Amino acid sequence: MFNPEDQVTADKVNDAACTHSRRTTTKVPLSQPFVGNGFPDLVTALDSEKAAHEFLQQPPVRAVDDHLIEFSEAMRTVAKALRRVAEGKAAAQEEAAEWKRKYELERAHNLRLNHIAPVAEVCHCTSDNDKCVNQLDQSMVPNPVSDQSDRCCGKHGICSHEILGDEVAEPIERTLAAKKASFRLAWGCNGEKSGQHKHEIVSFEKGNITTAERSSKQILLKWESQPKNVLILTKPNSKSVRALCAAMVRWLKEERSMNVFVEPRVKIELVTEALDYNFVQTWEDDDEIRLLHTKVDLVITLGGDGTVLWAASMFKGPVPPVISFSLGSLGFMTPFHSEHYRDSLDSIFKGPISITLRNRLQCHVIRDAAKNELETEDPILVLNEVTIDRGISSYLTYLECYCDNSFVTCVQGDGLILSTTSGSTAYSLAAGGSMVHPQVPGILFTPICPHSLSFRPLILPEYVAIRVQVPFNSRGQAWASFDGKDRKQLAPGDALICSIAPWPVPTACQVDSTNDFLRSIHEGLHWNLRKSQSFDGPRD
Ligand SMILES: NC(=O)c1ccc[n+]([C@@H]2O[C@H](COP(=O)([O-])OP(=O)(O)OC[C@H]3O[C@@H](n4cnc5c(N)ncnc54)[C@H](O)[C@@H]3O)[C@@H](O)[C@H]2O)c1
Ligand SMILES: Nc1ncnc2c1ncn2[C@@H]1O[C@H](COP(=O)(O)OP(=O)(O)OP(=O)(O)O)[C@@H](O)[C@H]1O
């Protein structure tokens, strides 16, 4: 006879089996869609956890445990088989599409040889619509090939000009070709439907998609009130930096009446040098550091790229404009020369200044041991990159990577670098990644020594969330490091989720973003330096 209590127990066992399988397999994150900020549905997760917890309170039953292990193994095998089937299907579809494309090209070519004029599938003209409709009608009449050049309106921005040679004879296609379907583009941004920015980038006039403005341009900063508060951050253990810092602090205070903030270490150094440096301000604890962005108009760094990274890491939220003076050996992000600091700072205080908005990556480590996925550690913001590598382990790292809800790949090698475009000239470059202009929005996905012949680096769009997971069958642990610092161990089951942070680092340019970037790769890396070819032969 059916007993409702038995059913409840059976449900609990099922729930517990699901929870158990989530802990013992690595495919389940795919079935937990990211909601909003990338976390799975909390209610479902909590319900499952609760049921599993109640189930585990019951006296252990050996047979059930064995059953669960067997069940999770079976699930893993099924998931693998499904993935293989999906990959096979995608490859077959791709091949079919390629054959279809070739076939259509061939048909079009044959028709052209038969002197039959092609028809425009959709003619998206803006101003010359009448003319085009007429042309469409005429185009149904066989014409010499030479007449085609003035047939359509390529001069009006994007104009679909597909050749449908094989459909010319079908009268029904004539009606379809003359009438254009209307559509709208919508920005799929976490369910936000207002789409208020879209007209800045794309104009929709009469259904034509035309980029009216580029998404990213040279940005100018104009002061609306005079900057008064300056934070100076300096590379430690450098005599030249210390001397420059002392001179700059005095000039800012005495000649420009600025309030100057420095790190506690630097204040001690300055006051030890001369007591009248007592005017410099500093902070005592982390709470004050968290409020620095509300007090400081701009940040000056004295050092190399490492000092710029250090400055960025002090701001866990918004960052004031950063002016970086070069006192290091490379200085990709330090465009200002320290000898001319007075002139440079005066022109910056006056404004306007060109700035580069450097995106940062926001990284969340999610522990398998956490009771739910909201129990994460504080997010870490990086200006260059987050690296997941094998650390001291001598095994290959084995990392499963997902982009939003799509499986990307498994990394088997020394590790993986997720880099900003600013970081593209740092570690990612050394691992074979492209150099990317810092204003290009994107996330670089660069493997470190992959044990594979076909693993090329990727650049993913800036709106995605990337999840890197250490699977349960990984032989070793992995380690994450953030801008080359703060190593964190990732055990099997742990994951790291990365997306572009809402707070970029605005760095002042010497000239402008592009000029500074090109100067850095030329001077810093001697990019594409080669002796010019000589020429001493006769001219044609
Ligand atoms: N194999 C490698 O190339 C490698 C290995 C480890 C770390 N790094 C880089 O070092 C960075 C940490 O820098 P640090 O100064 O604190 O350590 P560091 O003192 O070890 O210097 C690393 C070098 O990388 C350069 N660098 C840093 N950011 C750069 C950028 N965005 N573009 C071009 N060059 C850049 C620095 O100028 C410096 O010469 C990490 O974020 C990582 O990118 C590189
Ligand atoms: N204010 C700071 N406090 C603590 N550490 C800092 C500070 N500024 C920089 N650092 C660290 O000091 C190290 C060296 O700094 P930086 O890279 O600026 O100098 P560098 O090595 O001489 O320059 P380059 O990298 O161009 O050769 C970096 O690891 C950086 O993180």
UniProtKB/TrEMBL annotation:
It comes from the Eukaryota. Residues 82-109 form a coiled coil. It catalyses: NAD(+) + ATP = ADP + NADP(+) + H(+). Gene3D superfamilies: Probable inorganic polyphosphate/atp-NAD kinase, domain 1, Probable inorganic polyphosphate/atp-NAD kinase, domain 2. It comes from Asparagus officinalis. Its EC number is 2.7.1.23. Keywords: ATP-binding, Coiled coil, Kinase, NAD, NADP, Nucleotide-binding, Transferase. It is an enzyme of class 2 (transferase). This is NAD(+) kinase. GO terms for biological process: NAD+ metabolic process; NADP+ biosynthetic process. InterPro entries: ATP-NAD_kinase_N, ATP-NAD_kinase_PpnK-typ_C, NAD/diacylglycerol_kinase_sf, NADK. Pfam families: NAD_kinase, NAD_kinase_C. The keyword Cell membrane does not apply. GO terms for molecular function: ATP binding; NAD+ kinase activity. The keyword RNA-binding does not apply. PANTHER family: NAD KINASE (PTHR20275:SF0). Belongs to the NAD kinase family.
